[in-house]
Design brief:
two-stranded antiparallel ribbon; 2 strands; 167 residues; mainly alpha; globular
């Protein structure tokens, strides 16, 4: 179980305790062998896919969701695409672009909206949605018209705030 904070790292322990309380109410939770870890999340709208003949995948390439930091599916899929590009002599950059461009754009818009709303998305609100998986599928696939309209604004605002992620 992990808790992510944005900028207010002094609150991490308090936030983690709150996360444990919430999950304990939702599921029978028994934590064993707990370890405290920390780190920085990283994504890059313009991924660094290769260098000196090496192909990078997952977070090493900058392929991570800008909204909530999800990255395992990106890592596995980009690993597959790297192998495909080598074995079938296909352009890795084109494979990544085709597979991830909409998701990366959606994650930029989703991050922007999340920050504008002050992070006021709660588990209770998500649980109240009739089909939360359909909602998540929709918002992660750049399928809402307003996502497409909002993308240039979101990209501009986040570029100013997170300059290093857009170089």
């Amino acid at each position: 179980m992990c808790t992510v904070v944005f900028g207010k790292t002094e609150l991490i322990n308090k936030c983690f305790e709150e996360t444990k309380k919430i999950f304990s109410k939702l599921v029978d939770l028994e934590m064993k062998n707990q370890l405290n870890v920390g780190g920085d999340g990283y994504f890059n709208y313009k991924p660094n896919l290769s260098e000196n003949g090496k192909l990078y995948v997952g977070e090493a390439a900058g392929l991570q969701d800008a909204f909530l930091g999800f990255g395992m599916r990106y890592a596995i899929t980009s690993g597959y695409l790297a192998a495909k590009s080598i074995m079938e002599d296909e352009d890795y950059k084109k494979l990544i672009e085709k597979r991830f461009s909409k998701q990366l754009k959606a994650s930029i818009v989703n991050r922007f909206l999340f920050e504008q709303l002050g992070g006021k998305i709660s588990i209770e609100k998500i649980k109240s949605i009739r089909n939360p998986f359909q909602l998540l599928f929709t918002i992660y696939n750049f399928s809402f018209r307003f996502q497409k309209l909002l993308f240039p604004i979101a990209l501009t605002k986040l570029k100013r705030k997170y300059r290093n992620l857009f170089e």
